[in-house]
Amino acid sequence: MVQQKSRNQASPAARSVTLKDVASALGVSRTTVSNAYNRPDQLSDELRDKVILKAKAMGYRGPNPVARQLRTGRTATVGLVFSGGLTFAFEDPAAIAFLQGVAAVCERNGTGLTIVPAEQESAAEIMVRQAAVDGYIIYCLPRTSPIFSRILDTGLPVVLADYGDFPGIATVGIDDRGACREATQYLLDLGHRRFGVIALEFSADGYTGPVGVERRALATFDTAEARLRGYEDALVRAGITLTSDAVEERPENSETAAYEAARVLLSRNPRPTALLCMSDRHAVGAIHAADTLGLKVPDDVSIVGFDDVPMAAHVRPSLTTVHQPLAEKGQVAAELLLAGAHPDSRRLLPTRLVVRETTAPPA
Amino acid sequence: MVQQKSRNQASPAARSVTLKDVASALGVSRTTVSNAYNRPDQLSDELRDKVILKAKAMGYRGPNPVARQLRTGRTATVGLVFSGGLTFAFEDPAAIAFLQGVAAVCERNGTGLTIVPAEQESAAEIMVRQAAVDGYIIYCLPRTSPIFSRILDTGLPVVLADYGDFPGIATVGIDDRGACREATQYLLDLGHRRFGVIALEFSADGYTGPVGVERRALATFDTAEARLRGYEDALVRAGITLTSDAVEERPENSETAAYEAARVLLSRNPRPTALLCMSDRHAVGAIHAADTLGLKVPDDVSIVGFDDVPMAAHVRPSLTTVHQPLAEKGQVAAELLLAGAHPDSRRLLPTRLVVRETTAPPA
DNA sequence: CTGTTAGCGCATTCAA
DNA sequence: TTGAATGCGCTAACAG
């Protein structure tokens, strides 16, 4: 039986040609072959061509990336961790825009991008263990997630996106609280006095319903808490109290979820004249709910979203919403990481209220 | 100056603790430490705990993934190559749905997913060289792209998505031609006789305008050509000829691009009573164009899309379109790859025409 | 249950 | 320009 010398290797794949093989077949040193690929200026064009040609003829596929990574200590790849599973991530326009920003920088930089799902914790832990990356960007992962500490354990540079603040780790985000304060103030200035809030999840436990102090105390997602505070800032200043049943939490960022929440809020008596939503998808669901309740937007109820995803401008009526630079957030996150993710890095990106058609003075 | 023994290593990062260090500090063998992490059943719980504890105390971060990859010959990561740049990819609902499918399978399988951008060819070649993956899924990359041959050169398993046919490589796709034939037949049955087509790109050169035989001869994207053929199949059978100026190619899959194309087509005399679009985004742009031209959809003009992305059901009027299982396509691609991407694998997924509100008999 | 041995494939000094 | 030597950090046979 024709058989190669048995190798101490697990992979059943046929042993392939290595740089060494090419070198010896050619009677040159390994260095020379390596240089032919990686440092063309270190040898004569003639020799280089000869090497490459021979390599091709022998079926050499070029330097093995893994071996190079081990040798150089760099993978030229960043890891991106999403919470809530990839299915969620790729359905959420905000997450996609963020991803797009990250990807753009990676692309420009010749850096790979590895997606690490954090849906099932067990799987995620394995992923983090086995992923060959030079650093991580963490998007929307609850502080309490075990993945979080796993990643920190790797000792690799980390950038956090959309975390209020995290001493000792680089972060990028927006002033959620200020943005929401501004949006609410706008509604107050229009004359609104009765408000309802459709909130994103405070904690990754699937809770659905009104949000009271106990609920907020347990918050592991900074975003929801910061935004709610922003709403309150403005309301309190106007002498208005937001009762817990004026705030409906919906863990899922979908139109459907918000639809139901809006129906709950709009059925209260007295009915709120304005709905503050923590995402545009929620806002769209709220518009739909108002519609089916026979309420006109914005005449009977004003609605404000958050994010300013492309859809916000396209729905009818078009959405008044807080614009945040989602793709840019991704870009900055990637840039920060590529620059080493200095622990003191803190980038706050600007937001602005975009007034469109879903807001008006109350009837 | 306190200085470690100089190391033959490029990375300026501080040398970190290795498995070997832990082993010697503990007076056990490297195997034992390795086993403590990878094969808990190979040593006593007691010893294992001792090892892990000591490792932690020493600041050992666990087995280095790259070293493991080199050693095992597996990276447990698949590469996903998109054409047209990531910015495009993450903006295109169809691409995202595909990605979602791929990601879901990877997640389930504990496999990483590395996105390889193929926007700039030079950068992409570098990426392919340096990416540590066990195989590639190629989505929408023109046959003529140099990346294509680079990837084939790696000798790694490859699965092609949405390529008509490719001898010797595993593929997954749909029967574009048949699906379009069916959609067209439906319009014919409604009584339509004058058609316009808004086409996706035939070749990645940015060409915009009517599509004649010369243009089609150069096609490097199978999808556009197959779909156009499908339209023609049905038309020819009905004795109708599609002239080249009844087909407007728009390389960009956006509402805006289609809007313009539709204005061109709907300005022809006689005006087509039906528009066949190769994507839902194109169809939505066409609806918009009809609207601004004062034409009612579907009374004055029927419009058919392709893909059945979520938006298709939500726009008003809701879109009659060809449904294709986008996420499932991604799933199958990933499954095929994980199963070794046998060159003979060919999976054709079912499509179906979803009739909604944008089609009706001609006036 | 534990240790010994032998590389995985490469890039990088340093000397010639 | 080129080559020899070295080890990146780990895992899997295999033997004890």
Structural summary, described in words:
Two copies of one chain form a homodimer. Chain A folds into three domains: 12-63, 434 Repressor (Amino-terminal Domain) (Orthogonal Bundle), CATH 1.10.260.40; 75-174, 3-Layer(aba) Sandwich (Rossmann fold); 176-324 and 349-354, Response regulator (Rossmann fold). Helices cover 44% and strands 16% of the residues of chain A. Chain A has 15 helices and 13 strands. In chain A, the strands form two sheets. Chain A has a seven-stranded mixed β-sheet with strand order 7-8-6-9-10-11-13, sandwiched between helices. In chain A, helix 14 (310-314) links the parallel strand 10 and strand 11. In chain A, helix 2 (30-38) crosses helix 3 (45-58) and helix 6 runs parallel beside helix 15. Chain A is elongated, with a radius of gyration of 27 Å. Chain A starts with 18 loop residues before the first helix and ends in a 9-residue tail after the last strand. At the A-B interface, helix 4, helix 5, helix 6, strand 2 and helix 7 of A face helix 4, helix 5, helix 6, strand 2 and helix 7 of B. The first copy, chain A, binds a DNA duplex (16 and 16 nucleotides) through residues 7-11, 18-20, 28-32, 34-35, 38, 42-44, 47, 63-64, 66-73.
